[in-house]
Specification:
By secondary structure, the chain is mainly alpha-helical. It has 17 helices and no strands.
């Protein structure tokens, strides 16, 4: 018989090691991620799941597999789609393997310290193309993983871990990381004044509403101000919001929305363009890849795939979001609006990590 708690702990610890201990540049991350993805698929096949969930998710997996075959035929298939497909199997069965962090607190604290040491070492070794210290990832992705480490620190109530991330956010000059942490604390403070409202939140409605409003804002902003596009790399970027760098993001969103809206029934819109960096037609029209999980995912995978992924992802995540951890949800949502990270809609290792974190806070609240 499977020891679900032990397997869950090993999955979570492996994710921490992949994210923080093994730099992407040493070529060990990819095989470990492939192994983990295949492990998720094995768990999905062999772990007992309720018949209703099994039927609905099985139909989705068959549909996603067939769409993957079509992508291969069209020449738009990407390894990232295979990764999302395997992680989709993971989020379907991962609720069976969630564990109480308090029963494993010493192991998690030790691993937290190991990850912090690994982060420091990477910051001493790696720099971005513009000279900023970072993890062994692209600069935006480095900040995204630091944000997840902040959430991990808070879930374990490790205060120095949160201060650690705040200090690194200033070194990496990531406004998104700083603002996401600020939103985290703002929501934590104001939710105490509006308890009834925050207890009744529907995350599906909020996600849809926020994405629609942000898309409308992007169109309005670009058409109204016609901003000059630029990219600020100095320390001034931390204190500036209305600059060329953010204008670039909004312009990319606006161009992408118009590109998609021009022909919603187009096969490229329904089934995706594939690798955007290699699609000359898209780049000519949109200039740059949108920094937004929903828009970038639709462009790459198509509306049909994103709808299937998002439907199941949101249903799983909403089970672990409540008044007790709503600040996690809003800061995560904000991150997906401004960057292409797969946190809320498209299954990923990061999403599974987030589900573990949300469960830690949920169980802590239930047992208090």
């Amino acid at each position: 018989m499977l020891k679900t708690n032990e397997i869950g702990l090993k999955i979570f610890c492996t994710l921490l090691i992949i994210f923080y201990v093994i730099p992407e540049s040493v070529l060990l991350q990819k095989p470990m991620r492939i192994f983990m993805g295949l492990f998720f698929l094995i768990l999905y096949i062999y772990v007992p799941i309720s018949q209703q969930l099994r039927r609905t998710s099985l139909l989705a997996i068959i549909a996603l597999f067939l769409i993957g075959v079509i992508m291969l035929y069209r020449g738009t298939f990407m390894t990232s789609y295979a990764n999302s497909f395997l992680c989709f199997a993971g989020i379907m069965c991962i609720p069976k393997f969630l564990f109480d962090s308090r029963t494993e607190i010493k192991k998690l604290q030790a691993l937290h310290l190991l990850c912090a040491v690994a982060i420091v070492i990477q910051f001493l070794i790696f720099t971005s193309h513009d000279g900023r210290p970072s993890l062994g990832y692209e600069i935006n992705l480095s900040a995204a993983y630091l944000f997840l480490f902040f959430l991990f620190s808070d879930a374990l109530n490790i205060k120095w871990g949160k201060v650690f991330v705040l200090v690194l956010s200033l070194l990496i000059l990531s406004r998104l990381l700083i603002f996401s942490i600020a939103i985290f604390y703002i929501v934590r403070i104001i939710k105490k004044r509006f308890v009834n409202i925050f207890k009744k939140i529907n995350i599906a409605v909020i996600i849809i509403s926020v994405y629609v409003l942000f898309g409308a804002f992007s169109i309005w902003y670009v058409h109204t101000f016609r901003p000059v596009i630029a990219y600020e790399t100095s320390v001034k970027r931390v204190l500036t919001i209305n600059d060329g760098s953010n204008s670039l993001r909004l312009k990319a969103n606006k161009n992408t929305i118009e590109y998609l809206a021009s022909d919603l029934c187009n096969i490229n819109v329904l089934l995706g363009l594939g690798n955007l960096e290699k699609n000359a037609d898209y780049l000519d029209k949109v200039v740059v890849m949108p920094h937004n999980e929903l828009l970038s995912s639709i462009l790459e995978y198509g509306i049909i795939v994103v709808f299937i992924f998002a439907l199941f992802s949101i249903l799983i995540i909403q089970k672990y979001v409540g008044y007790y951890n709503v600040e996690y949800f809003f800061s995560i949502l904000f991150y997906t609006l401004i960057l292409w990270v797969h946190y809320l809609l498209i299954p990923s290792f990061e999403m599974i990590f987030i589900i573990f974190i949300l469960n830690f806070t949920r169980l802590k609240f239930i047992n208090e």
